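Handout, section 3.2

Students often ask what a structure token actually looks like in practice. Rather than define it abstractly, here is a full record for U3 small nucleolar RNA-associated protein 25 homolog. The first block is the sequence as you would receive it.
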Amino acid sequence: QSENSDKSSAESDSETEPEQASVYHKLLATLKTSPESESEDDDDDDESESEEAGESGTEMDSEEHQENGEAEVGEEDENDMPDKKGICLLLYMATAEQTLGEEQCDGEDVSCDPSHAVTEEFTDVKHESEFSLETNFMEEESGDCDVDEKRSNPFKQHMDKEMEEKEVEKMSTLSKSSSQIKWPRLGQLTFSSTLEKQETLKPDKEVDVKQLHLHKPLEVTWPKVNKQLLSSLNKSCDSCFTPLQRELFCIMNTYRDLFYPETTALTNGEEIRLAYCLHALNHVLKANAQVLSNNAKRRDRKPGVDTDEYRDQGLTRPKVLMVVPFRECALRIVHNLISLLEVKSDKKIDVSNKKRFKGEFGSDPEEKPPNLKRPEDYEAVFAGNIDDHFRIGVAILQKSMRLYAPFYSSDIIIASPLGMRTVIGAEGEKKRDFDFLSSIEILIIDQADIYLMQNWEHVLHLMKHMNLLPLDSHGVDFSRVRMLNLNNWSKYYRQTLLFSALQNPQINSIFNKHCFNYTGQVAVRNIPQIGSISHVVVQLPHVFRRLEAESLTSVIDARFQFFIDKVLPEYRDAIMSHTLVYVPSYFDYVRLRNYFKKEELNFVHICEYTKKAGICRARRFFLKGEKQFLLLTERFHFYKRYTIKGIKNLIFYELPTYPHFYSEICNMMKATDSGVDATWTCTVLYSKYDAQKLAAVVGIDRTAQMLQSKKNVHLFITGEN
């Protein structure tokens, strides 16, 4: 199995399913995996709920589960298998995706039914000429007619640099040199670059908006909009930036790539989102102002004058791509953009198709049952509309915004990885398109950790299609195209902003292998001093068992062999009942489930595709001790956060992706009615390749000791650590 397969979207879980991913699995991998709209009360104190739902085969929410490929199946072995409707929908998505340029005859707003997006993708053609860059000119009152004179601003410095072939060669062949510095708020930063003479950036203690070279309207709107956000979040700030925003924007505004792995929806997600919206909008407004200004100069120029000085565009119009996990995130981004464009509060900007957008990307508060108990971080991540199959083009021209613009008439594209995957398509498909990615100048990937729980392959597929030469000209005026685009060097000018809640090898790989910015990269590399194990509140001995593997690719097989040879035999005895095995990788889960069936062990299993009835039966059997083992996938815990009662023995087959899941799972033991049990156990499997995950759980000091020693490590948590 490949390294990437560990984080792929969950596939069919039938009894005869092979452990290797087949073509069938690859098709199913495009199914969305957002959690179902819960209809049952998951009150952990009410055990009778499990029995009733288990016996009656609780009816699921049809729309959500059909998209997930889920359906009600009576037999336990088939509980995890996608239904026929889900497969048909998937096959339709894979083979009959509508083209991006599909037009409606009159461009009028149509039904806001979410299912409409599946059968016919709406794009606004009514306002095409109004938002055309080619046929419009700069309005004098916009204050950007002098854009060419502002040679000191970061936008001009970055986009106007003319690279030489030897520099491009150097970037393609030489390794990056790096340096480290500590900033007051961001902490430890690593600056890296291939080109020489890269100065280490220092943070600004105070920021004057006028010194940031913002597009003039943004100088007025930013302080107002940001203060409104901070007051709603109960955060105070004397200046127009929070300390975090100031340091992040200081890096963004230099056009360096940025990786910030400490973004959480619960704490700083909104202030970070607003900061990158400011940067993206500033870039788009400046780029469009330059084009409109040059339009007027070309119109007034004398015949025969050289037009090379008017090279101000890419091969296609889209400049910014924002990748976000859910429709709610796209909704908040658009609201931020609108707020930043409205200079006067009493005068709203013109936004085309706003009503339709709210209907398709908004949510009904009454849809969510009020009696569900979930952690605060869960509520923050899954707030609003959590559909993960969408894409929308946004065109901005001076004082107007156009939602649902065709991609080739858009400045900003907001999409989910799945939304991008279904339009990019695969090799050999007739209807596929990725030319609109050819001239992306800013790529923003927000909440990257969530894509590990969706389908990481979609992110990799997107990165492979970034900044390629387009297959069609799409009506571009080549006399206006920058030389960097004609030379196919656009990837060296693209800025990538990557935000995540955690550091992970796969996310790191995106930043290290798919970012080529000539300006360099900045990564925040803070090492956790105290791990999540300190949040375990039950008295519990933790045994960390080290397994040896010759290489990263052999870890998967080495872990499985270590588990069945060294760990599982200790738990086969009936006295070791109530054993929960927590499995982060779906493919490891399938492998273990097949092995348990082959060995005829007394067990139940729950994954992200298990039906409600199957979940209730499994939880009931496990609680009563009728089943000795419970196999549980990490993605099920991520999307559901059910409390599993009856755990007496806990095995982490691999360290959790999210460090706080470790303490959450351990603390489930206190849900058992019998209280603290002296025989409780917790066993964790790890290898030397799990250093990042290990540090996040036990802290950096313990990690260093554990990686140096080849012995098992025993830790006892008293509940006060």
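Discussion prompt for tutorial groups: The first helix runs from residue 23 to 28. How would you have guessed this from the sequence alone?
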